[in-house]
Amino acid sequence: MRRAYSVETVRAAEAALMQRLPEGELMRRAAAGLATACGDLLRRNGRVYGSRVLLLVGSGDNGGDALYAGARLARRGAGVRALLLAPDRAHPGGLAALLAAGGQVVDGPDGLGVLDLVVDGITGIGGRGGLREDATGLLHTVTRDRTPVLSVDLPSGVEADTGEVHGDAVRADATVTFGTYKPGLLIDPAAEHAGALRLVDIGLGPELPEPPDLEALQYADVAALLPVPGPESDKYRRGVVGVVAGSERYPGAAVLAVAGALRGGAGAVRYVGPGADAVIARYPEALVHAGPPSKAGRVQAWVVGPGLGDGRSAEAAVADVLAADVPVLVDADGLRLLDAETVRTRTAPTVLTPHAGEAAALLGTAREEVEAGRLAAVRELAARYRATVLLKGSTTLIAEARDTPVRVNPTGTSWLATAGSGDVLSGLTGSLLAAGLAPRDAASVGAYLHGLAARHGSDGAPVSAQDVADGIRAAWRDVRAG
Asked: Tell me: the pLDDT tens digits for 186-234?
């Protein structure tokens, strides 16, 4: 599992560790890991010896890490030059080490020639508010030939704690971070700037508290949560999920939500709505009912909302489902039709799965604000509605009303930006709820499998929602196989 901590927590952990280490040891560890990563990147594009490296060096420890790493590269035969953005505040020990190793300091970008690597050591995790204009211009100049950029700890100009980007920021090909991940490395839009991530162990682990601020599940974590039938299982032990979806205008939403539920391992799926004929034609194992949902039979969880449309019948269906004493997932049209106070006062769990536009409507704000501050938005939604919230998007986030780490899904892909994909996710997650997974786990596993399924379904080509549904089996097998 990838775990991320706020800057304040990281700073406190570093301070505690430094009290037990010789002076400068922590920076030496960071610089050694950074130099190794630089060397690996240079070797992929040629070799270390004779390569041309430019360090963009800001003030403080981030610039010091870059300078000490540059010294190591210089001793391995690389031509290393440093451009100091704040010469009077450059790290003195790092600068001395670079010069002693044969590195050079340059006054500006003129005459540098072709570069093999640019190391971004401008601001790191302490930066706020985007790059200054002079740094932006300098960066554009030295990378105009598409020179690879490696960022130190965090791409300069992005917000470490939130993933927000206020102004210009470095777009790195790779980022080497120290001790632990930072939230901004995992959450868009900042994550889009980070490139390939590499974590360097500097011994910080024992100093970091529980729980982290953010976590991202990996194969082993998801595999441990997957519901697997036992010898005594029947359809009720495996979980029966009810799906209230579709309308005369959107009959396909019913089919796709049921597809996701069946692929998610539900023992049975009860469908309620006007799309019964379309559902049975595609999935004859589904159990159908004309409604209302409360009369459809026993279920362990409900999914309501995909393709419901408007009108009194749709509103009544949402209210009926929310009155049930089982976990409920609300998506799409259901999010517009729900009563906020009803959600807040439910005793059974509720999962809300909005995209940015739906989240903005629930919060009474602009979509752009949600997209720019995804972490703040998902936390506010969870607190305001006292629900588990899965905020869909380029990075899907899952938050609870209680104080648990926000989860970020690492398997998302742009192929999921297709009509009906969210309906599949709703059914899939609903089936995991019915199988007995806790709401946060069901949402996390559902998002993880959903992303993998899109990759299987696309095979590098455009993907449909039905392709995503069909890819869930392969995603499930991948996770089980590790």
From this structure: 999 999 999 999 999 999 999 999 999 999 999 999 999 999 877 766 6
Looking at residue 228, what is its pLDDT? 83
Which residues define the annotated binding site for K(+)?
62, 120, 156
Q: Report d(CA 469, CA 29) in Å as an integer.
A: 46
CA–CA gap between residue 476 and residue 223 (Å, rounded): 9
Handedness of CA 113, 115, 119, 123 (dihedral sign): positive
| 178: β partners | 200
Of 42-46, 76-80, 402-406, where does the model show the most confidence?
76-80
Q: How far apart are CA 296 and CA 26, in angstroms?
A: 62
What is the distance in angstroms between the CA of the first residue and the CA of the last residue of the chain?
13
Mean pLDDT, all residues of the chain: 94
pTM for the complete prediction? 0.94
Residue positions in the annotated binding site?
Answer: 61-65, 120, 124-130, 153, 156, 253, 307, 355, 392-396, 422-423
Helices (H), ranges, 283-332: 312-322
Is the preceding peptide bond at 87 cis, omega within 30 degrees of 0? Answer: no
Annotated binding site for AMP: 392-396, 422
Residues 147 and 170: beta-carbon distance below 8 Å: no
Q: Which residues are annotated as a binding site for (6S)-NADPHX?
A: 61-65, 124-130, 153, 253, 307, 355, 423
